[in-house]
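Troubleshooting: if your tokenizer reports a length mismatch, compare your output against this known-good record of 410 residues.
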Amino acid sequence: MRKVLSIVLSVFLVLSFSCSKKETQKADTTTNATQKEAEFHIGVVTGTVSQSEDDLRGAEKLIEEYGSTNEGGMVTHVTYPDNFMEEQETTIAVIAGLADDPKMKAVIVNQSVPGTTEAFRQIKEKRPDIICIAGESHEDIPQIAKSADLVANNDFVARGYLIIRTAHELGCDTFVHISFPRHLSYETMSRRVAIMRAACEEFGMKFVLETAPDPTSDVGVAGAQQYVLEKVPAWINQYGKKSAFFCTNDAHTEPLLKQLVEYGGYFIEADLPSPLMGYPGALGIDLSQEAGDFAAILKKVENSIIEKGGANRFGTWAYSYGFTQSAALGQHAINVIKGESELTNMKDLQKAYNKYTPGAKWNGAFYTDANTGTKLRNVLLVYQDTYIMGGKGYMGNADVVVPEKYFTTK
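Known-good structure output:
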């Protein structure tokens, strides 16, 4: 009996091992099949978590959907240095290096910091078949447009007008713009300042320029943030609680919001709007449980704003611009490569944005060179409707017709 049981057990173990081996081989075959499905690759370049977390999370969303090239998927994600102004050669090398992949068909950079234009030039020199897409260019648009196949920036023209218009609708009498020389040397930001100033004149508001330290300078992020923390109470005292504030740098946003919640004042939306931009730190709320769910994120941020007495004084885009830009530009590139979209078609681009922003409306226009009046057909400026927390909700800005004169204001 014992011998029979021993034989039966041995046969069972052999069969089990054989089945297990076959299942493993089947799984390996399935994995290999999945790997083969990625007929082409796209490269997505963003900043790091410390500089532009939303941009990076958007790239991670693409990897979640289409897989990493390291595991046989479609997406290669790399980051440029935090101190990109001092390490442009490294930035260029990181971006241009993606062209070494023979299956690479598109390279998306968000945000397109200095060095992107040269990196795209090098890519085109080596691989003219690769589609180069610049998201939120920090370089002069007419220059980067020469080496990029598509440039997609926030619509600084329309937003320059609409942010002021919204502040006016909320009852603000003063608009305070906070920046520093490096940012104001960018054509997009200097033109937006001119548009904001002109819009303030149209709506009978006072326009003020204030300066804060550049976080990439010797004072660093901590020093720049401390400066804003200390200055906001004095600015509120000087300009009044009916003043709306705007800053051009992400690092300045959190301390600005924190003090506006405490001392009064308005904040229409961030330079690169998102309910994650500055709000969690300023409000002291943990959004880890809501990660990736922007409807839940917005609701939690809005509830906190209301609890702290900030209803109808603070706004955002309901969905992160940085997150959406990385994910949507990647999706748009995939659609174009598959022949499902045209690269410079605004409706096709908006189709990609809409995938990641259900319920929010988008609008935009082709970039117009203020010096020549020429529209660049490979540069699309986009914006999402503004959402004011605490009751106002969407302001309908995506349906507002911006006066034509602002498109050549400089």
